[in-house]
Amino acid sequence: MTDSRMNPEAPPTPDHVTIYAKDYEPPKWWVRHVDLDCDLSADKARIRATLNVEKNGSHDRPLVLAGDGLKPLTVQVDGADAQWTLEGDNLLIELSGEAHEIATTVEFDPSANSQLMGLYASGGLLCTQCESEGFRRITFHPDRPDVLSTYSVTMHADAKAYPILLANGNKVSEGIGEDGRHWARWEDPFPKPSYLFAMVAGDLSANSGAFTTMSGREVELNIWVREKDLPLTHHALQALKDSMKWDEEVYGREYDLDLFNIVAVDDFNFGAMENKGLNIFNSRYVLADSETATDQDFDAIAGVVAHEYFHNWSGNRVTCRDWFQLSLKEGFTVFRDQCFSQDHNSEAVKRIEDVRLLRAIQFPEDSGPLAHPVRPDSYIEISNFYTATVYNKGAELIRMMRTILGEKDFRKGSDLYFERHDGQAVTCEDFVKAMEDASGKDLAQFRLWYSQAGTPTVRAHVDASGSGAVLKLQQDIPDTPGQKDKQPMAIPLKMALLSRQSGAELVEERTVMLGEAEQTVTFEDIAEADPILSINRDFSAPIILESDRDDEELAALARVDGNAFARYEALQELNLRALLPVIRGETVMDASKVIAAFDATLSDERLDDAFKAEAIMIPSEAMIGEKLATIDPDKVHAARQALGHEVGKGLTEKLEQMYGRERPAGDDLSVAAKGQRALSNQLLGLIASGDPAKGARLAKAQYDGARNMTERQGALTVLVSLDGAERGAALEDFYNRFKDQGLVLDKWFGLQARAERDDTMDAVEKLAEHPDFTLKNPNRLRALLVNFASNQWVFHHASGRGYDLLARMVIEADKLNPQVAARLVPPLGRWRRYTDARAKLMRAALQRIEQADGLSKDVFEQVSKSLG
Ligand code: ARG
Ligand code: ZN
């Protein structure tokens, strides 16, 4: 075979080409039905595919079937051997008629598939991951989301090694073959894009249940795992039932097949995948009991189960026309899973968590070299666009539409969307249009949220004089790569004007639509002369708010605002006001206002523990860094440590008294119990900040007496950053206790990588050589490296050792798994924001990666864009 890359005369390799949204064209050929015959074993899969293709419109273009690393063994058209050519990895077949039957055979080795895309082996199982473009690693196919087909799949495998054979839809027949083999045939009656194809073969056991749908149909539910893991599946099964019920109640959406399967696998590039009727999950989002999983893990499992289940409508029944529309399904589905979790927990606290995540991950993305709109205009590798912007900012867009339309019209809009587009592959525009048509509201300007990248800054100022008040608003959208001079956006701001004393709403809560670059809103007849502005309540828009409210006003909001999110915001702002001047070298730390505000919050009996736990969290170093034009990680760290120390000292008595309260039962997963544990762990952290020796003693006692993983991990999180014998003892105990449980061992790696210590850099280098560390398992890789790279002060070690290590790991990991390797690059891409010496070292690390041999297009895209 000739390789164009070897020949300097040849055109540039087709690998690193940019795909543009504006170039979209409908498919030249439809595929109406796919029949697969799969002969499976660990190191050999033989796939015979029969595609019923049909010409779309009139043209004389050949059929182009995408492949990735495949060689055709046979190609037949309508039963006869056919002429074909390979263009790069793609198979071209000239066809004479309007409709044909195309049959191809390929063979490959699943055990050699380290990319974990397509069909691969994981812990004795064979499983698939096809989104976005993995199906072409299994068979030749157009493999684009606007080509929808029904599927029938026959799987053959050794009956002992692979007693369970699963694919999408319903099992229609099965039987015994020769030589100890057996087979099963599955049919999926719903036309679907190839990215939703799935099959699994393995020695699996099911925790089974049933759900009766709103129309009275009985659905069989199975959570498939290795037999020994069965006791860990109850929470996931319950979450699935809760999700099915919730989607009926809140969106009127009923499940459509008679069977819903979830399979847990240990090696998985992402969280989970919504394949029709056969979801495949990273085992970390399935397996849990209170000994091995924290309350957060439990909540994350429920959230991901809900997310994948909700995709059955928002993603599967109505799918994406092309990958630029990814947020159509992901933004909407994240919004849906967020609301599900809000309904099953404390609503305000879930909102706070989601906003914290948005600020920690999406805001930096939006202000860096990889910034892109929620609906991107171009990509080199689509896998790089499964981002916080597409997912989480995308969810914020849906939430804003709900705010603008109101709940009732929003539901009308979603009903119309599902009704209009069921069975279709559509665009973000189609979604907005349905919302518009159902509500009669004009969303023309709102659409800019899909096309303009960058986080808007909104400045808000209130002038109160006499009996009225004027709210002045200004907005500013920053330039981002490839986008300058942006238009003002439509920004829904939930606001109220409050009495300083009582918090009473002098101007009732309303949503102000900011649409101009500058705008004023007038309020008449206000009973008090000096009201306080409460704005962007519930984080109604994903913006950066700048206000000139003084510390007293913020302290008052923190105490009296009726909107819990706004109270949290006021506390965050007070923290930042204590931190930023110290970091800039303008003053020494004055923690008095934070101390007073935390004190008042902790004493407020109307507030629940989960809220208090969030409220007394000092903003992370990453979040503080976002507020600085140039980041000096040493200064950020020192200031944050100082604030923690002052707060811990200043509130010792109260912290210890509250920390000493009786704890809920170890396996109590009620909202109240989870809140109590979350608060208790935060209190412990602050106590340790004030008095490390005492913190270490208390944490060790909590560790030794831990009755569940939330207590154990909470204690260890505090201990790992402290000195003293307790630390080593607890880490060793944790390792010995859990060394055979992969998901828990991930925590052991992660906790150490997050430790705020000056020897963490050494520790991480050592852990990268630890016999239990491997780049082959994405969970293990992320446990060490993602945690390490987000540990600001450690990763940005002045020596550049952190950057070196990460660069080395990216180059190594890229040889195995480009998708996962590419996800490690963004922390280095932030170089423009750091002080000169570090910026240089970060760039050098990126350049080293760029020069590595045989770089994947995944890493190439991230690195080249990061260097800019
Ligand atoms: N659709 C999956 C989910 O969000 C994620 C798939 C990720 N795949 C990828 N190639 N990035 O539920
Ligand atoms: Zn999703």
Automatic annotation (TrEMBL):
Domain Peptidase M1 alanyl aminopeptidase Ig-like fold: 454-547
Reaction equation(s) it catalyzes: Release of an N-terminal amino acid, Xaa-|-Yaa- from a peptide, amide or arylamide. Xaa is preferably Ala, but may be most amino acids including Pro (slow action). When a terminal hydrophobic residue is followed by a prolyl residue, the two may be released as an intact Xaa-Pro dipeptide
Entries under InterPro entries matching the protein: Aminopeptidase_N-like_N, Aminopeptidase_N-like_N_sf, PepN_Ig-like_sf, Peptidase_M1, Peptidase_M1_dom, Peptidase_M1_pepN, Peptidase_M1_pepN_C, Peptidase_M1_pepN_C_sf
Keywords: Aminopeptidase, Hydrolase, Metal-binding, Metalloprotease, Protease, Zinc
EC number(s) stated in the UniProt entry for this protein: 3.4.11.2
One Gene Ontology MF term: zinc ion binding
Keyword Thylakoid listed: no
Stretches assigned to the Aminopeptidase N-like N-terminal domain: 92-196
Annotated Peptidase M1 alanyl aminopeptidase C-terminal domain residues: 551-867
Co-factor requirement: Zn(2+)
Peptidase M1 membrane alanine aminopeptidase domain mapped to chain residues: 236-446
GO terms of biological process kind: proteolysis
Family the entry assigns: Belongs to the peptidase M1 family.
Record-given protein name: Aminopeptidase N
Natural source organism: Sphingomicrobium sediminis
